[in-house]
């Protein structure tokens, strides 16, 4: 036959050289379509390592792509897939060249089948084939290797095949009732530990691996002990598990009988410590531990030394045009049965016509339930449903029977559910049945007869029966029975895309027939495979996103294996501190335990070991307070003596440290010993003086290798009269070496090179850049064919390109603004088995899906180039900072120090981060980052965003003095312009926030040496007292010569024209609260000034002066005089105004006085975001603004001592004047003085 004529091309050569070119002719079927195949019987099981193809000699016939199938029996074929995904092999491009593929995982089989998919369109299918490999043999029983007790590795290995999805493969018992077993459960292999034998109700699962292992193909299993771990391997995937402490591996018995006689397996071999050659594998049945004598038990149960395999022919429905048509039965009843497996929740399984009723029967999946509908003339005559969760990839049986007026639908032999109906019409199978997909119609036929109202079925079927007779699918394949289209017969092509799961960091994997999906909810990661962290890597990074102090989740290694952790970020100081708490940070008194000479204290941290190590490693500085308070309790003794106490610090459980806080490691001293100021010069710690008075030794541990403090051991606490207390503060770290690690590339030919980037399955790359160039390559790494590259392709576009063997793929992001503006821009690129994505700054991410059936391993082998390429063309000119690959930061600065054309570091951050400085704060450059200078702002805080507020009582007064009047006292005739020229103002800018229930009230008073004054007050007006008490009002007044602007809260800004010359000469002082020197004031204003102010004042600002801030924060260095009680408070903040709302401060300019930026990275208060409270606060703000604008009248008085007569203020209504009196119980006074003019606005 044809196969025998081609045996010359199938052999086992001694070398890898191809011999196809020596042959002539070849195989070419009569019909060229996708239903042709070439099958080769190798005569015995063979380890196949490579295949090579060639076109038919002297012709235009060759195939351009093909599938490879393998089988041990000539049935139940299994498709060979490269990288667990790619199913087809590229073929030939002509008839003469040889294309060889080395199989990544050798295939062990007797039969090989090649199925052409595509061929030369100008010719036909043509093939010459060669295989490479060696014979594969396995003896029934033999021993090999060494059983010495000195072996460090203990291995049990076997191969099995089965049709059953559950059962016990291996069971081993040890002492104490412990047992270890390998069991199949729903097609997955479980490593189970039991206490009390096989009858234990709840075994402990140590590992779970593999899937769909009931496919009647050989699967390799190995259990290996390595130290304190067990490695479970199924086929080519391994899971490493920690051995439980209670598990003793001195197991001595392996019975191979199965508890359930119906669960049958074929076992090929076990091996322990055997090095297996390419062509020889032995069968060894032996126990788990090599410490005890070997024992062998093969007599229990039905054990044979052969493997009889039942023939089960399956059929795969891979796509929308797949269907199987079978002839119906002549009986008046219906009986159809089959088994199916799928991952899809929906799909049409079976349909047939009712010959007598003229209706149609639909049997389909919907929401993973089996449903049956009988339709006639568009109306449902009957509906049934049974089963649930039938899309789990397991085999499920379906039986549909009718007769004697009863219709029954059963799933899994009634275990999965059964439904009955008694239709009034007979249900019988018509002339033909259709399984899956459309009903045998052409693809372009959309007639009513061919239309499928349900989703297509993608999955496998087997054991089909019609009228209780099995269907021979091999006859169908040979076109001798029924009809079919686009089916894969004699194989089940189901793939478990979630085993092993491609979802990282605990993401939940789900799948359909063609794709998988990762649910990343609650994992802390995002992306198609839950690869990228949603959290920042340090408090420093959160700060530069505009966040303020609070609790944040920190992911120190980004996409790496370390989990996120909750820490407190303190951003109130110049440095940004990351604070990690432990279980006792308070000062704690020592309570000795009777009978123990030492007192041991252990500290448990909120972060795990690897998290702590990563934090201290990436921080520039870490410290931890360590203090000891003592009375007759010695601490360290002398440096030459044995210390009474010590502590353990550093990685793991810590190393013994014999120095104290503030001293140097290994010194056995305290801080006073280093400074030379201990209470007893003969000792190096205050407590070592052993005095009856209380003393203390306190200081900071700053040596990072000794942090954190794990335990304290206090020794001298048992003597009579000894008393002691200790405190170990939280671990505090600041500075992120990774965040500011940068390099500057000043030439297009300059670059940095690093070792090859390994991101075979998942790769994420993130960095910041700034440049003035319009293009340049940021990063490039090459392989033989694969590559990965990120570049600035134009002044507004970033390009991410790569190739993993499917051809180049590009992802682009276009910016609306130029990227060469010398400001920092962030790039985040990710590539995984599902998609590639690119994100630029805060623009939406661009994505490209990966081919569903393609290569997905990124294989690189050259050096990684940063800032340039291997060809030294298209290099990048500018700065690159914080470059991270899969969560690992590349040290650009260290490499730049030794590389010409590249400089470490990159200054100039205010251009990018200066906008974070709010409320007139000034951005100041630092070597690593920036700082907000709040000297000219009425606010304080890291971003000049924190309000400075104080509670005023009636007697409180804050007076800020501008100039001393020495020249004016000496010579009153001196012109003000010569003495106070710098204090002569042609304009003022006054702003403040207040909250009070006092009305009327004087808010601010500014006086001059020429009896000129400026006053800001609240007039008595109706029912405003409640409003003033409940909300914070913000007032802003600005005068520019004769034009005055006035605004309250969010009300419209009003402007007024004054008639003075616009100068305010020789200002003397600014007073908040009670005015003590009020002799020169009007009687009404003097009376009001004497009352003082009761309430809250906040962020008081006069031109460049912040008097309230100076009084509260710098009273000793500022020209302020404080009388009466002045209490700093947060009364001016939004949250304090209304305890039930998050924020309700009103702001003139629409800016948030708290300085918060509501974005993606917000601090967590008790790890919970109070969104509802924030919304309520915003609503409260709007309400108070509206009410306050109607009920409050603030008055700004500008008084000028001049001789103006009979002049009116423009824009002032006449009816406003009667509203001016400060107390409505006092008669209005008509002040008449020709030497002064007052403006009431």
TrEMBL record:
Domain Laminin G, residue spans: 130-307, 313-492, 741-906
Name of protein: Contactin associated protein like 3
Cellular localisation: Membrane
Residue ranges annotated for the EGF-like domain, each copy included: 494-531, 907-945
Residue ranges with Polar residues bias: 1222-1232
Keywords: Disulfide bond, EGF-like domain, Membrane, Repeat, Signal, Transmembrane, Transmembrane helix
Main location: membrane
Disulfide bonds: 879-906
